[in-house]
Amino acid sequence: MKSALKNKILFAASECAPFAKVGGLADVIGSLPKALKKIGADVSVILPFYGKIKIEKEKTKVLKEKLSIFFDGEKRFFNLHQSFLENSNVPLILVESEKYFEGDIYLTEDASSEGSEKEAERFFFFSKVAIKTAEILNFSIIHCHDWHTGIIPFLAKKNNLKFKTILTIHNLGYQGIYDSKIANRFLGSEFQNDINCLRIALSGADIITTVSPNYAKEILTPEFGFGLEEKIKKRKKDLFGIINGIDEEQFSPKEDSYIAQKYSEKELDLKKENKKFLQKEYFKKVDLSVPIIGVISRLAEQKGFDLIRDSFERLMKKNIQLIILGKGMKEFEDFFQSKNKEYPGKFFAKIGFDENLAHQIYAGADMFLIPSHFEPCGLGQLIAMKYGTIPIARAVGGLKDTIEHKKTGFLFEKPESQELLNAIKDSLSFYRKEKIWKKIQTEGMKQDFSWQNSAQKYLEIYRDLTRV
Ligand code: ADP
């Protein structure tokens, strides 16, 4: 019996593109539910109505008013608004609470688990609201994403709540670790030791997934398990690695309204117009023979910016132009910002989040650099390949699953600046062989990075979970 069609699934997450985005988590929450809906799933998304979210009035309506939960020792009120994921009929439930959701998404520079008490308060509150919403609106599964919603599986199991839970790990590096006193105050719980939101989610969730098959293997090892490897090993039979997809409507050089010139793999020469645009706009120097390397990323330790920093002067000796768009750790922001003055015409860094420039880089650069220390899936390389921009990446996590060395990109093994430089050197020698370069570009553009197959896998999990 195809019982999943009767399931009502609620995605609970801290980000959702384009409304509230910091990284790939937002892209997944903004696109996977649409793919699930297309294959028959009844899916909705719940998200905090952060102060910074701007939605036109006519696109939202009040769903429920003056609901309440018991939190931080008192009855706390909230409203639910209903909107839709962009260009879709997937319901987006926005939780309104001025007290808990004013301002931006995260309150620390790196969205890290060493976040403030305010961050714990915010996401504990959100998680408890998601549970209440699931109960009121009869959801049968809550699909939780990362530590921000980690207390949901824990509370569901502890209190024997009637819905099932799935935890998807998008990044094991962030676990949401807080002093027991903080948790006990907000939740009325009796934790004796620090609370680790991801750890308790691993115990409570009925199923655990992560975002690539390779990362599902890596997180069982001390190198990538961040101290949770033994815990995850115990759940190995319930663990699935499902590769992320991208929204191919949003990221398509054929239809992208942010870029100077639309193109497809059949008219690859047109891509040059986007390169010219980047060179004119950001380097003030147009020379199509000079390859542009692009980077778009959270400026986090995970992403290997130490390797870029350590090889920076040597990189600048090469015949390249380098453009970096990113936001995050101050030490990297300051470093790259300071280099802007030193290397005009060769280097450009924009510190900030900029959707427009991100698309221009995907379209205008020749190569896309991702030297991550670890990478659960990585979406940047998928988007880059769709734009015929060739990834140079560390052979780790999802990067290894999605890039084929010298067929769709370039991979290097060790997280060392010399290896990074060698891989770049390798790619530059291929860049000079126009025909081969074009073949690599075309091969990448033809890959299927849609959600179709992966959505099917999630659907099967939902079905198995509620099959009696
Ligand atoms: P992560 O989820 O670890 O941040 P991913 O590669 O999975 O990394 O996803 C990153 C997503 O965020 C991509 O869509 C990328 O284009 C986008 N992104 C990252 N930094 C920026 C930025 N500064 N401005 C615009 N988009 C960004």
Question: Could you provide a short overview of the structure?
Answer:
The chain has 19 helices and 17 strands.
Could you say which structural class the secondary elements and strand pairing correspond to? alpha/beta
The appropriate CATH architecture of the largest domain is: 3-Layer(aba) Sandwich
Low-confidence stretches: none
Shape: globular
Radius of gyration: 22 Å
Our measurement of the CA-to-CA distance between the termini, rounded to an integer number of angstroms, reads 10 Å
Q: Tell me the strand percentage band.
A: 15-25%
**CATH-wise, what's the superfamily of the largest domain?**
Glycogen Phosphorylase B
- The number of helical segments is 19
Assign the CATH topology of the largest domain. Answer: Rossmann fold
Report the count of strand segments. 17
What would the average pLDDT be, to the nearest integer?
95
Number of separate domains: 2
- Kindly state the percentage of residues in helix: 25-40%
Q: Which strand order do you get reading across the main beta sheet?
A: 3-4-5-2-1-6-7-10-11
Which sheet architecture does the biggest sheet show? 9 strands, mixed
Mind telling me the CATH class of the largest domain?
A: Alpha Beta
Attached small molecules: adenosine-5'-diphosphate
